[in-house]
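Database export, one record per block. Field names are fixed; values are copied verbatim from the stored entry.
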Amino acid sequence: MTVKLAITGKGGSGKTTIVKAFMNIFEEKYPDKSILLFDNDLTSELAHSFGLDIRNTIYGIRSGKHEYKTGIPKDMTKSEYLEWALQDILVPIDDNVDIIESWFVGSKDCRCPITKQINDAVYKLLNQYDFVIFDCEFDLKYLNQLVDTEIDCTLIVANPSEASAHLAQRIKEFSLKHCAGNQLGVIINKVDNSKMSTLSELLRKYDLDILGVIPYDKNLEDHVVDKNSEVVVNAIKTFYPRLNLPQ
């Protein structure tokens, strides 16, 4: 059974660092399990953090602009072709981890058959992995336009500021209907001691289910591209037992 984790939030909140931290935790806890990193963020920052410039995307398949690594097999149905094409654009990170880029997605208001066919093909791909981590574009709506799949745990990344907390509340409202009753909560990221009083005020003011707090890691200034942080990994491990994820 595939475990699906979605990381949402405003750009710059620290989503990519947190996605990579969860990848490291899953690899440590379950070294034999397969992981798919699903980059649904238009900035493609997750791929860049691995030193990758991925040009072959799900949008490229939909638009017919994808250049395949091999010739297209003959006598395929459209559904078989889409499933094959998705396999063709997977990029391996290591033996058990792959990454895929969605880039632009089509609206579900589009009645063309390709919308449902891509939904079905992506859904099948997701369920070939033990873990899927989605790096989302703002909220779950954009992801849901591409694939209708149940998310076990959705984490909204917010920073300890009034504007960020207000935005997290909006993301929560936009995402609730796509959570299928599963866990939806907030992680407060980049917290330093000087902001603890501000954080306490925000918790009182906004109706947010705070699942964890991550301290500010000054060392990330030296990892601005690769987004790696041992501080973030260790912080997530402290509140991991609260999450609707395998323990």
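Remark 1: The two ends are 15 Å apart (CA to CA).
Remark 2: The chain has a mean pLDDT of 90.
End of record.
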